[in-house]
Amino acid sequence: MKAIVFTKYGSPDVLELKEVVKPTPKDDEVLIRVHAASPNDWDWGALQGIPFVNRLIFGLLNPKKQILGSDIAGRIEAVGKNVLQFRPGDEVFGDLSGDWGGFAEYVCARENALALKAPSMTFEEAAAIPQAAMLALQGLRDLGRIKPGQKLLINGAGGGVGTFAIQIAKLYGVEVTGVDSPEKLDLLRSMGAEHVIDYTQEDFTKNGHCYDLILDVKTNRSIFDCARALSPNGIYVTVGGSMARLFQALVLGPWISMTKNKHIRILALKPNKGLAYMKELFEAGKVIPVIDRPYKLSEVPKAFRHFGEGRHKGKVVITLEHNNKT
Ligand SMILES: NC(=O)c1ccc[n+]([C@@H]2O[C@H](COP(=O)([O-])OP(=O)(O)OC[C@H]3O[C@@H](n4cnc5c(N)ncnc54)[C@H](OP(=O)(O)O)[C@@H]3O)[C@@H](O)[C@H]2O)c1
User: Ligand 1 in contact with 218 (CB < 6 A)?
Assistant: First the structure.
C-alpha cells in the first residue's frame, strides 16, 4: 500500500510517499481502508520531534513510528476475532493518537478509538472532526463548564479547534469573541462570533474587557494577563500552545485559583470522548466542520507546509482515492 513515511525528524520535506506493507489487524483491531485523514498540531510537533516529549513517544533520535496521522475516516475491511462493535463495510471515524498511521491507504485501529460515521457525513467532514472537535468540546463543556448568557473569548478561533468551539458555544447561547489574524475574522463573524479581535492590532488581555470563560488554543500570553481578562469567578482553559506559557499556567494556575477567585485549567485531551455526541450535532445540522481545502495523499508534505504556516481556516484534510486494485 502507499503511505507517507518519515524516517527522520525535520520539515515537511522529510515526508515521502512510499510503498509499505499493508498492516494486518490484531485480534482486538480492525483494518480500515482510509478515505480521508487530517493533520493536527500533534502531527506537526511529531514531524519535527518538538517538543521533546514527542521524541519519547516516537523515538529518541529517529522516529520509530514512521507514519503520522491520527484523525481518520474510512471503511472497515477486516475485523480481528475479538472485535464486537464493527463489521466489514462499516464506515467509521476516530482519533488514533497513540497509534497513528493514518496517512496511508490502510490503517489498523482498536475499536474503542472509532465511532460509526453518520451516513450524511462525507469522509472529509468525518476526518476533520475527532481531535479538534473533542478539544473544543472538552475544553468548553468539561473544563470550562460553559453556561448560557456567559461572555466567552476564544483565542486562536479560526483554526481547527476554534471553528468547532464557536459552533459549540453558540448552542449554549453565549456571547462569543473570537481572536485571530485579520484574514480569518470574516469567517469568525459568519460562524456567529458577535465580536472579533485582530491579534496583530489588539491584545485581548489589555483592552479592558473581561470574560466569564476563555478558551485558549495558542496560550501565548502571560497567565497573569489572561487572569486579568477574566471576570470574577471566571474560568480560563488552555488546550495548548507555547510550552513555556503552559508550564507557567501549570505552576502558577493553582495559586491564582486560590488567591484571585479565578480558575486556571489545563486540558488533557481524552481522545474520542464525545465523538458520538459530535456526530449527533452534525446530523442535527448544528455543527459543521470548516474544511480549508482537501489535499491528495501524495500532497501531504504540501498540506503540512500549509498547516505549519498557520494560514489554513478550520481543518486541512487529506483525501484518498482508491481504485479496486488497492
Ligand atoms: N491538551 C491536549 O491534550 C492537546 C492534544 C492535542 C493538541 N493540543 C493543542 O491543541 C491546539 C490545536 O489547535 P488547532 O488545531 O485549532 O490549531 P490551528 O488550526 O493551527 O489554529 C490555531 C489558530 O490560532 C491562530 N493564531 C496564531 N497566532 C495567534 C495569536 N498570536 N493569537 C491568536 N491566534 C493566533 C492561527 O491563525 P494565524 O496563523 O493565521 O495567525 C490559527 O487560526 C494546539 O495548541 C495543540 O497543542 C492539545
Answer: yes
State whether the beta carbon of 314 lies less than 6 angstroms from ligand 1. Answer: no
Distance, CA of 287 to CA of 309 (rounded, Å): 26
Distance, in Å, from the CA atom of 184 to the CA atom of 201, rounded to the nearest integer, reads: 14
Query: Does the pLDDT at position 182 exceed 60?
Result: yes
Sorted by sequence, the CB contacts under 8 Å of residue 309 that are 6+ apart come out as none
Can you say whether the dihedral through the CA atoms of 100, 104, 108, 109 is positive or negative?
A: positive
Q: Is the CB of 304 within 6 Å of ligand 1?
A: no
pTM higher than 0.90: yes
- What pLDDT sits at residue 326? 43
* Torsion 54-298-319-66 (CA) sign: negative
Q: What is the distance in A from the centroid of ligand 1 to the CA of 319?
A: 22
pLDDT in tens, 86-103: 999 999 999 999 999 999
Whole-number Å distance, alpha carbon 30 to ligand 1 midpoint, is 31
In the predicted model, what is the mean pLDDT of residues 221-234?
Answer: 97
Spatial neighbors of 73 by CB under 8 A, at least 6 apart, are: 34, 35, 36, 37, 91, 92, 93, 117, 121, 123, 124, 126, 127
Complete DSSP assignment for 132-143: HHHHHHIIIIII
Q: CB of 51 within 8 A of CB of 36? A: no
Helix (H, G, I), strand (E, B) or coil at 177: strand
Which ligand 1 atom sits closest to the C-alpha of 238?
A: 1
Radius of gyration of the chain (CA): 20
Q: How much is the pLDDT for 144?
A: 98
Query: What is the atom index within ligand 1 of the atom nearest the CA of 161?
Result: 16
CA–CA distance, 165 with 170 (Å, rounded to integer): 9
Sequence-separated contacts (24+) of 60-65 with Cβ below 8 Å: 62/7, 62/8, 62/9, 63/6, 63/7, 63/8, 63/9, 65/100, 65/101
**Which residues touch 286 (CB under 8 Å, ≥6 apart)?**
167, 171
